[in-house]
Amino acid sequence: MRTDTSIFLTGFGAFLFAVCCLYISLLRRFKNRPLLPPGPRGYPIIGDLFNAISYAGEASVPLWERYLDMGQKYNSDVIHIDVLGDHTIILNSARATTELLEKRSGLYSDRPGMYMMTDLVGWHWDFSNFTEELFIKISSLEQYRPIIHSFSNQPRVRRAQFIVNFLITNFYFPWYESHAGSIILRLVYGMTTQSELNTFVELASLATESAIATMNHGSFIVDYFPLLKYVPGASFKRKANVWAPAVAEVINAPWEKLKASVASGTALSCFATKNLEKFNLMTIFDTDLVETDEVDLDMEKVIKNCAGIAYFAGLDTTKALIMTSILAISHHPEVLAKAQKELDAVVGPSRLPNFSDRTNLPYVEAFIREVERMYPITPLAVAHRVMADDIYEGYFIPKDATVVGNAWAILHSEELYKDPLKFNPDRFIQDDKDSSVPPNPELYAFGFGRRICPGRYLALESTWILIACLLATCDITRPLEEDVRELDPVLDFVDGMTVHPKPYDCRIVPRSAAALNLMKTGYSAEIHKCASKHRVLLNERETYENVNSGKRKGCIKGESNPRRVEGPTGYGPHGNDPGYHYPIDATSNQSLKLY
Ligand code: HEM
């Protein structure tokens, strides 16, 4: 008995001693360290785990609003949340995102581990490893315009049918979806046949569900505690298994189609073929000629993944912007009237608007900006990861912390946008030379710093042409009930990583017989030839617009590609895994172009 007691006392003493040593060493380590930003205190070791568990998967309050509320509660635009030692830093102001994600983008451009998304659902080829794989220079948007026009135009009957469908059924018809998707599929894989386009647009929509649900870091507890991915039968694993096949199809199926079309000699020139040609890879699809030891199969994988990313990242987001724009206009007849007045004056009744009209249609532009601001499609952008300890405004930002730019909070801040909850495109109209307008929402609605969306100009052009044509030729209103009473507004959004309106009814009616005829006729052959006179690289344009104007201070003036990263490479959670790190030298001219 005495022996037992003494063993117990010795053990207990040793335990106390160990705890004291640990405590002292932690005290020493953190003694001179500045405080973390304010945030929920949570409990020792587990931190804010209980809140994270109760929040995961629950959508009663969108995450971006919750983060904004926290900022107000702790009276800070930078918030810190700790879950099981996994740090998340929320940036609720433009000041903070500009300072950290842009000015210090060399440190803040990695991606955090999104284990549910990458490891379990199979999106590892997507966002996590994009930047180092290549720099897509989307060269000359003007070169795309004939294609964008042709899809905004084709087939004419379908457009008319779209209107008729609305008229007859008052029912939502997903033409918007094939518009954005068709443009991207044509540009990336050279697809044109309607059945192919429909199949791949549908496939992307299927896969989207999982991306929306998993891309916000912490949507699933396994993001905080990666070892959970080995727990057999866990409910999130069952979910992942349901989602995984569509995700695998998104990356593989269009590539197989492309291979078949190259092999049969029917492939059209597109992003994929141009880059395969550039790296002498076209022969790999020819089964008779293939000499696998002489071709760079890693590079094939790079091109395949980049094509898959552009296809997937662009389709759902652009579709959401178009859907939201149509929904917003149906709720604002005064905006519709103003836009139509401008279109009538500039374009007139005898043709459709085209890209050369864009600068002369400031109100239509302002309308789309206000949609981007009021209803950001990616309210929390995509999370970044900081690669080394840092200090911001006296606060400590620990290495590996997930850093989230809350675009929604910025785009709804009273400081930048007066009366932010009011839908008011006029805020972007400059009355006279001296009046100032608020910042272009594009600066925040497409992410931050070196990771900013490379497809944003394409998305905006595809949206602009569709909306401009629609406003010029149709009245868009809320549905009328039988007694001609207007229904209540239904601005109801499904939220997640990207935000879409829930299916809604709206009424789209041609403004006149001439307008309907115009839509049936479409663009003249002339417009299809609107080839560019000069080439404008997307990133040069970004440099020009944002750096020279001083708005994107994170970019170095004159730097032709602000996404280019000096210093450590191998970004992403799989950065050191050769399977995910592709052999492109960031300093060479070896870049892929979306032609
Ligand atoms: C309304 C439409 C769109 C929105 C709102 C949008 C938004 C975003 C956001 C928020 C990011 C993450 C930025 C960050 O990490 O800070 C992103 C990344 C990306 N987007 Fe878009 N996007 C749109 C359209 C497109 C289109 C049309 C394409 C391609 C054709 C595209 C291709 C990409 C790619 C490849 C990335 C990954 C960049 C990287 O990880 O470095 N996006 N987008």
From TrEMBL:
Residues at which heme binds: 453
UniProt feature coiled coil, ranges: none
Biased composition (Polar residues): 586-595
InterPro entries for this protein: Cyt_P450 (IPR001128), Cyt_P450_CS (IPR017972), Cyt_P450_E_grp-I (IPR002401), Cyt_P450_sf (IPR036396), Cytochrome_P450_fung (IPR050364)
Cofactor(s) needed by this chain: heme
Keyword Cytoplasm tagged: no
Molecular function (Gene Ontology), one example: monooxygenase activity
Sorted UniProt keywords: Heme, Iron, Membrane, Metal-binding, Monooxygenase, Oxidoreductase, Transmembrane, Transmembrane helix
PROSITE patterns: CYTOCHROME_P450 (PS00086)
Family: Belongs to the cytochrome P450 family.
Protein name, entry field: Cytochrome P450
